[in-house]
Structure formats: C-alpha cells, structure tokens
Design goal:
The chain is mainly α and 132 residues long. The protein contains 6 helices and no strands. The chain starts with a helix and ends with a helix. It is found in: Mitochondrion.
Length: 132
C-alpha cells in the first residue's frame, strides 16, 4: 500500500512539473537572445526619427486611412472651421453647474446639468440597491 502511494505521489509530482513547464510563459526574443546583467542593452534604445523637422511640422502622420494617398498637411488656423477650436474647451462639472442659477444657464449647460444629474441619481440608486 505504501509503495502504491509513493508511486502515485511521484507521478503526481512529475505531472505538476510537466504542467509547470508547459504552462511557463516564454518570449521568442528572450529565448534566443542572451541577457547580460540587469537593465536594457544598447539595442533597447528608441531609434531616432529619420524625418526632417520641416516635414514633422507640416504633416499629420498616420492620418491617411486609405490604401492610396498621402498623409494630410497641417493647414493654417484660419483654414479650419470655428467650432473645431471649441472641442477642447473645458466643460463645467456637475457641482459647478448646481451652484449656478438654473434660469441664467445657457441651453448647452442646462442640458449638461440634466444629463449629469440623471447619471448621478442612477449611480446613487444602483449603489443603494447593491447594498441591500
């Protein structure tokens, strides 16, 4: 009986080792390349761009989504529509909108207040329901 248990333990240990070896994560580059000490080597440094500064400042790289064609050129600010400059403007937070008088809010801010307030109420209701 003891002999039978030791055989099963031995096979179990070998099976776990085999699973550990098979399940071990390796990388192709790391398996072939030898590492010399800690840290990255000279090959890990980012490569310097071969593009000139003039091309970098006048072209949107990876802006072309078509197979044929070229990357779009950066135009002067006057060439773009007015609304494009307002996309990056900061919008007021819910707490700031609640402090203002509702009757004097512009339509866009009022619409944002309603949306954010509804979202906050839904989150609050969900958290109350989750606790019960």
């Amino acid at each position: 009986m003891a002999m039978n248990c030791s055989r099963s333990l031995r096979s179990l240990i070998l099976t776990k080792e085999a699973i550990g070896i098979v399940g071990q994560r390796t990388f192709a580059a790391g398996a072939k390349a030898k590492k010399s000490g800690k840290g990255g080597g000279a090959g890990d440094a980012p490569k310097a761009s071969s593009l000139s500064k003039e091309i970098k400042s006048t072209t949107v790289f990876c802006g072309n989504i078509l197979k044929e064609g070229t990357d779009p050129k950066i135009l002067a600010d006057s060439e773009y529509p007015d609304w494009l400059g307002h996309l990056l403007d900061k919008k007021p937070a819910l707490s700031e909108l609640r402090r203002k008088n509702i009757e004097t809010l512009p339509y866009d801010d009022l619409k944002r207040l309603v949306k954010l307030d509804n979202r906050a109420r839904i989150k609050e209701n969900n958290s109350v329901k989750a606790k019960h």
